[in-house]
Structure formats: structure tokens, C-alpha cells
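Translate structure to sequence.
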């Protein structure tokens, strides 16, 4: 705190010094005015009428007309000032002002009688600038702005001091006014950087809001006070605690006010926590996607409520719109509509892949009592099932979690659907991890084992390496040799790989593991565990179905119809204009014919010529 006070005092002293240094010329001028002896107007010596010592001189490029204009305007200012302030000077006995006016008027008289235009202009400038304005203004310009002022107002001199006082005031008062956002000690030193996590709420906590059901109070999200966080260095918390944290996010949303919110909060948070723990999604990403789901769910509930109230509003039954909205089913209807709209493309993709798969796989699923699209059997029995629409909840959570981890793979929507389908059909591995026992990266198993190998293959298709720019310090991708002007015709891009996942017949044949086994030859439930053994370099090689040739013929192919139309209109107009004189001056035969029909027929030959 002592260091903070020293910093505040230092700022105040610097601002005060700036204010005093800015006011130094004004104080010197004030002292000069006070010490100047007050004398009655008298005849001045000839040395005072020299304009060479004045700081205000005519410009070097001033013409004779400019000098004459300066003489007239400055002497006119002197005369006008003498007339304007004569009454005030007589009332207040401003002897110094009368002396200055007298000297200025005498200089103007001398200037008007001078034979040299340069000397006359200099005396006029000195009369106004040196005598009346005390060097604070110089009017040596014949066009706007006419005068240049060098005076600094008292308010301008006080600006640094005012800003310094305001800064000191805010620095001292803001920690007391904004305790949640400003902390004085944190501006001076910080604690050792460690991971922070909310402390698990105690069982006897009674701080739950009254609006929450009793069964949800134990899972309430911790508060945001500084006491509710502690530094930890131990391993990540268990999935149950993460589910409680997600449930707290649910209770902080507006969905908590709807009926059956308690059951939906437990099921939604449980599904997200189970997927995160089973498939190795990053915990911050899972939390973001949970908030994403709540935002979409809240908006969809509002749409459902508005749709239910529209018939009552159109019938003119004012005041009965509230009864038209069944809030008891609002969460269920909103989730059902959200699932139908958000996953429409995914369900179509899944249907296409299922139709192309072998019939024996579908028979095995039906015989085992599983739906043909899978329902993440590895989650069964681990978390409370949703009240209703449990399958839709799981599919929405899986899709959002995969989408949140995909990164640049989002440019391939069908790849996201492919990975989501494998997540939904993954079978329980008997309590073991879905990944191998190799050390996991800090970024999460799904990102390190699934997404990163795919992006590495995509990166190697076009780029050679990543270097650090010495000027900006940012990462820069280095293209392969010869790729700097344009990519080769057979170089694949995001659209080509996305087309591969759009075509189930090609996808079944292209996706192979490192040992040469086809991915779709494995049972459906075992395909996700095999993804980390995928040979993405061989699977995504030579997937381009067409060559992208760079040529000027592309420009002609895009504009040839416009060129043909201009040629046809030009020749037709030429024939129509010259139809009155189709005879040759030398008596010969014209190339395009000598009559109007023949000329139009010759123009028609442009059509087959353009086609060729």
C-alpha cells in the first residue's frame, strides 16, 4: 500500500510541474506588466519606430499589394481598438492601456507617411502585435485565418493539473466504489499463477435461492466471491463435480423459472459431463458448448411460446394469451424443436450412410435391441436419464461437443456429422478408456487423437511448415515450393475432402487404418476406438474428382456470351446504318454482299464461328 501511495503522489507532482511549466511564460509577462512604469503619453524617440526588432514581420513572399493590405488592416485594427476601449479606459484610469494605444497610433501615423512599403507594413504589424497585443498575436497573413495567436489560456495551463487530480481521485476512490472489479493490491503484485477451480459446495449449504427446488440446492453453482475459489495443484476433479458445475450454469440461466427445470438441469449436465469424461473433450470447451445449448434452448422456448400465442392473438381474445402457452411442456417442446432444426442435416447424412451399409449390420442392431442410429451405450446407467427426449438430448450434446472441438475441421460439415455418428454409436469398453494407453496431451484426448491428425494431413497438403515472423512475432504458414503463385490443379482442399464424406460409397472404400483394414469393416460400435489408428494420409489422398486448371480460357468461358452479344449487336447496327449505300465505289462486289438480306446472312455466320 505504501508503494501505491508513492505512485499516486508521484503522478500528482508530475502533473503539477507540467502545469507550472506551462504557466511560466504567462507569469513572466505578468511580472513585466507590473514592473513597467506608468507614464503619460509623450512624444516617442525615433528608435521606437524601428520595425526590425519586432517578432511579427511580413512574410518573405509578400507582394506590394500584400504589404499595402497589411498596412491598412493592422492600422484599422489599432484605430478600432482605440475607439472601442476609450470609454472603458477613461472610467477605470487604465494609464498603461492609453500609453499602448498612443504608441500604436503614432506608429501607424509614421507608417502611413513612410515611402517604403516594406517598412510601412512592418510598423503597422508592430503597432498591433507589439504595442496592443504584447506579442501574443501576429496578423501578417492577407487571407484567412489572417492572424496567428501564441497566447495560451489559463484553462489550457490548468488542464494537466486537472487531469492529474482526476487520476489521483479515481485511483484512490475506485477500489472502494467498485470492489468487485478493482482491487488496489492486485495492481502492484500478483500471487503465484495456479489453476483455479470453484470449491465444491458443502452439504449443509443453505445459500440456495428460494426459487430453486430443494433437490437442486445441493448442486448449486458456487458464488463468484473471492472466498469461493482456492488454488489447487491436484489432478482434475471427477466427472460428478463437473456435472454439478454445469448444473449451476443451468440454474443461472432463465430456464430455471420453467416447470420441471430441476430434472432437466440434472439430466442435461449429467449428459454433458458423461460425454466429456468418456470421450476426452476439453473441459472449458464442454462448458462453453453447454452454455451454447442453453442459449439455443432458451431462444427455441421463446419461439414455441410465441407460436402458441399467435392463434389467440389473431382471434382477438385479448388477455388470454398466457393461458394458450403450456409452460409445463415448454422445455420439452423447445428441445424437440431445437433437435429437429439443428440436426436436420445430421439426420439426413446418417440416413444416407445407414442405407449404404451392409444389411447384416442393420440386422445385428435390431436383434440387439438398439436403434439403427445408436444411443451412446457407454453412458447407460452412469447418469440420471432425462425426463423425456433423452435420445435427443444426447444427440444434441454430442454434436455440439464435436463441433466445439473441431477447429478448422468445421469447414467440412459432413466430417462433423461423421464424427458425431461415431460418438453416438460407440459401445461401452467395459470401464476402460476408448483410447489407447499412450500418454494423453494436455489439450484433451479427442483433440489430440482425433482432430489433430486430421488437421495435420490437411496442413501437409498445402503447407510445408510454420515459422515465426521476426517483425510481428506471429506464426506464418510456409507454402510448399511452387505453391506461392497458385495451387496445383490436383491439390485437394476443404471442399474436396467434404465431398468425400458426402459420398458414402467412396467413404466406405477410402477410410483405412494403419494396418490396411477398412474402417467400415469393423463393427459399428468399435469404429470410434479405431479412429486413433486411422491412416489419414492414405485415406484423404487423391480424393479430388476434378482438376482445377488456371488459364485465361476460364475468363473467356465466363464472359463469351457477353462478347458474342456485343459482336452481334455491333455488326447488325453497322449493316442497318450503311444499308442505303451498299454499292462499291470501284464497281466491285462487297465482301458481305450488296443487299440488305445478304449482309444480314453474312452477320449470321458469326454464330457458327463463335461456336468454333
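Result:
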Amino acid at each position: 500500500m505504501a508503494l501505491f501511495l508513492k505512485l499516486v503522489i508521484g503522478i500528482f507532482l508530475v502533473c503539477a510541474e507540467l502545469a507550472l511549466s506551462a504557466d511560466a511564460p504567462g507569469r513572466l509577462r505578468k511580472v513585466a506588466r507590473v514592473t513597467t512604469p506608468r507614464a503619460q503619453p509623450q512624444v516617442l524617440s525615433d528608435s521606437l519606430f524601428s520595425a526590425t526588432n519586432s517578432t511579427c514581420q511580413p512574410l518573405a513572399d509578400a507582394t506590394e499589394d500584400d504589404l499595402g493590405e497589411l498596412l491598412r488592416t493592422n492600422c484599422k485594427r489599432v484605430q478600432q481598438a482605440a475607439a472601442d476601449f476609450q470609454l472603458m479606459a477613461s472610467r477605470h484610469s487604465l494609464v498603461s492601456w492609453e500609453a499602448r494605444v498612443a504608441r500604436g497610433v503614432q506608429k501607424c501615423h509614421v507608417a502611413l507617411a513612410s515611402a517604403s512599403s516594406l517598412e510601412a507594413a512592418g510598423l503597422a504589424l508592430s503597432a498591433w502585435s507589439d504595442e496592443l497585443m504584447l506579442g501574443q498575436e501576429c496578423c501578417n497573413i492577407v487571407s484567412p485565418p489572417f492572424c496567428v495567436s501564441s497566447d495560451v489560456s489559463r484553462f489550457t495551463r490548468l488542464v494537466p493539473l486537472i487531469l492529474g487530480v482526476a487520476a489521483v481521485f479515481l485511483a484512490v476512490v475506485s477500489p472502494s466504489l467498485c470492489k468487485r472489479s478493482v482491487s488496489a493490491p492486485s495492481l502492484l503484485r500478483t500471487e503465484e499463477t495456479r489453476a483455479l477451480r470453484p470449491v465444491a459446495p458443502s452439504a449443509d449449504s443453505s445459500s440456495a435461492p428460494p426459487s430453486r427446488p430443494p433437490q437442486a440446492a445441493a448442486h448449486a453453482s458456487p458464488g463468484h466471491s473471492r472466498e469461493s475459489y482456492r488454488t489447487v495443484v491436484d489432478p482434475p476433479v471427477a466427472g460428478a463435480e463437473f456435472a454439478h458445475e454445469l448444473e449451476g450454469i443451468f440454474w443461472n440461466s432463465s430456464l430455471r423459472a420453467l416447470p420441471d427445470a430441476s430434472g432437466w438441469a440434472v439430466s442435461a449436465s449429467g449428459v454433458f459431463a458423461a460425454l466429456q469424461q468418456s470421450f476426452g473433450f476439453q473441459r472449458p470447451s464442454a462448458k462453453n458448448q453447454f452454455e451454447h445449448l442453453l442459449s439455443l434452448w432458451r431462444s427455441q422456448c421463446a419461439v414455441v411460446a410465441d407460436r402458441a400465442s399467435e392463434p389467440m392473438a389473431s382471434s382477438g381474445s385479448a388477455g388470454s394469451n398466457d393461458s394458450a402457452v403450456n409452460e409445463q411442456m415448454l422445455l420439452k417442446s423447445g428441445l424437440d424443436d431445437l433437435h429437429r432444426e439443428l440436426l436436420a442435416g445430421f439426420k439426413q447424412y446418417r440416413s444416407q450412410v445407414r442405407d449404404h451399409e451392409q444389411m447384416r449390420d442393420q440386422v445385428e442392431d435390431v436383434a440387439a435391441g438398439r436403434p439403427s442410429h445408436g444411443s451412446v451405450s457407454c453412458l447407460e446407467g452412469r447418469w440420471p436419464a432425462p425426463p423425456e427426449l433423452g435420445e435427443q438430448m444426447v444427440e444434441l450434446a454430442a454434436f455440439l461437443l464435436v463441433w466445439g472441438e473441431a477447429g478448422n475441421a468445421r469447414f467440412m460439415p459432413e466430417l462433423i456429422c461423421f464424427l458425431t455418428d461415431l460418438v453416438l454409436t460407440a459401445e461401452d469398453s467395459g470401464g476402460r478408456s476408448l483410447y489407447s494407453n499412450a500418454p494423453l496431451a494436455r489439450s484433451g484426448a479427442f483433440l489430440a487423437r482425433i482432430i489433430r491428425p486430421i488437421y495435420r494431413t490437411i496442413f501437409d497438403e498445402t503447407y510445408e511448415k510454420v515459422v515465426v515472423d521476426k517483425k510481428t512475432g506471429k506464426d506464418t504458414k510456409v507454402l510448399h515450393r511452387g505453391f506461392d503463385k497458385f495451387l496445383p490443379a490436383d491439390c485437394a482442399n476443404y471442399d474436396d475432402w467434404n465431398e468425400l464424406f458426402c459420398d458414402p460409397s467412396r467413404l466406405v472404400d477410402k477410410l483405412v487404418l494403419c494396418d490396411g483394414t477398412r474402417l467400415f469393416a469393423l463393427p459399428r460400435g468399435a469404429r470410434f476406438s479405431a479412429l486413433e489408428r486411422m491412416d489419414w494420409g492414405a485415406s484423404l489422398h487423391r480424393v479430388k474428382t476434378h482438376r482445377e486448371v488456371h488459364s485465361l480460357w476460364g475468363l473467356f468461358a465466363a464472359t463469351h456470351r457477353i462478347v458474342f452479344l456485343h459482336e452481334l449487336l455491333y455488326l447488325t447496327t453497322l449493316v442497318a446504318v450503311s444499308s442505303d449505300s451498299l454499292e462499291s465505289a470501284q464497281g466491285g462486289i462487297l465482301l458481305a454482299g450488296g443487299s440488305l438480306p445478304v449482309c444480314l446472312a453474312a452477320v449470321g455466320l458469326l454464330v457458327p464461328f463463335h461456336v468454333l
